[in-house]
Amino acid sequence: MPIGRLSTGMAKTSAKMELKTDRKSASKLPSKGATTRTLILETALRLFNQENASDVSTNQIAAEAGISPGNLYYYFRNKEEIIRALFPAIRDGIAKPLTYPKDAPISAERMAADYVSAIEVLWRYRFFFADLIGLGQRDPDLAQMIQALQDDTVATMGEMYTDIASQGDMTQVDKKTNDLLALNSFLVWFSWVSFMDRVSDPRKKREERLADGALACLAIIDPYLKPSYRTAVHEALNDLMYQRRK
Question: Where is 19: in which H helix or E strand?
Answer without folding.
Answer: helix 8-19
